[in-house]
Amino acid sequence: xxxxxxxxxxxxxxxxxxxxxxxxxxxxEVLPFFFGSVMHTTxxxxxxxxxxxxxxxxxxxxxxxxxxxxxxxxxxxxxxFTNFDDPPCVVIYELKxxxxxxxxxxxxxxxPVGTKTEKNMAQGGPFITGVLKSLVETGRPxxxxxxxxxxxxxxxxxxxxxxxxEHWPLxxxx
Amino acid sequence: xxxxxxxLSSQTRRKMLDLIQDMPGCSVGDVAKYFDCSRIMxxxxxxxxxxxxxxxxxxxxxxxxxxxxxxxxxxxHDRWTTEYSRFWATRAxxxxxxxxxxxxxxxP
Lengths: 174, 108
Description:
heterodimer, A: 3 helices, 36% strand, globular, B: 63% helix
């Protein structure tokens, strides 16, 4: 058995819970908080397939399967980077209404210890949480993050061949 | 943000965050082992970290699991850095670490 760990990122988002949920589960549109990817699914329901693709659809960075979908409170899916051979982990998004907004929690569960996936999840958690906050509160990511997203989009053509979307069709289970 | 700086202004609390980051899901007891002070004092420090949102404690059955939350620190970082300054700051820090590791000095 691979040793696994858990990472948690949490932030208060000053917005209605439905706005946070809608931003989080938006399909077919660029998601700045998810590194400028576009989410594709076969439906927001357990058992559905999920892919995170580049805006032009050519590359797929993340694949997974939806495990739970309870709008607007909880969204859970498996998560695997297409460019690593690591086992999949589980991503849990929890939204809770609190005084002054929504307590947004991102839990990366079953993260394999000592892998590239672990390193990427540790950096990705605070990024996703922070950008989602500024996106929902102000309508756009902060300036520094916009510059970073611009750089990421320029790096698309450098993705390895194994990340090409034809290897990761939506109609095949991962 | 005041709460974050207050929480980080103590060497003991910084050490606690180091430990919790290395042992995600650890208990208060796991943390207390590393300190000479009373459990009440440890709890007080953990409360200060929780108030700053640097610490997340989740109840799992009867156990309380502790996790480090990097988001408040990331927000401080975002406020005062740009991609450009980060690039050069990282180079400067790398150089510092490279030179200092030769001297075997550890920053408290």
